[in-house]
Specification:
The protein has helices spanning 3-23, 79-89, 102-108, 114-120, 130-137, and strands at residues 140-149, 160-173, 183-192, 201-208. By secondary structure, the protein is an alpha+beta fold. Strands 1-2-3-4 form a 4-stranded antiparallel β-sheet. Residues 20-49 have low confidence and may be disordered.
Amino acid sequence: MSTTRTSRRLAAAAATVLVAAAAAGCGSQDDNTPTPAPSHSSPAPTARPTATYSPPQAMPSGKAGTPKGLPTTVNEEDATAVAHALAVTAFTYDTALDRTPADAQRRAGRWLTPAYAKTALAQPVAPPGASWNQMAAHHGYTAVTARQAHDTAPASTQTSAYRQFEVTVQFRGRDGWKGDADEHWVTWIHLARSTASSPWKADSMRVST
């Protein structure tokens, strides 16, 4: 597997948990597009009466700790600061601490509303697969930067704010390994708070290449 494909799969996994609820309603085809008729028919498979099926066992969380590069202090009364911290944290993970990219999502949970965190972080975590294992073999981690961008959005109020960030993800190994190319993502984050003096929390996050 090439380094480019490895980086792409890992970066995509880093965002999957937070956007899973929003992506659930999306399809790969337009709903009005007719489905082509099959060229031939095959008999339906017959299940064995005695067969049993079990969902994959969820992966445990990683070790406690803070990967380098994460913001240490965040002014939670500043919507931009909270959105920046969330954008960076969602893509920052370290195989010395983490078992899967979902550990980065758990760290980001502190900046999510309770309802969003309950929905986004309740997804079962499966084993990470060959891409993560390759990165772990290099004692790998991600170095993430986020630059604020501006897109058309409703104006901010004292209790609602939209922020957009362009995120760059670099893949590095403690043995000198480097990803073949940086990955670039765009995040759109909506933040809310109950009063003008409450901390900002994200109640939705959309990610695109």
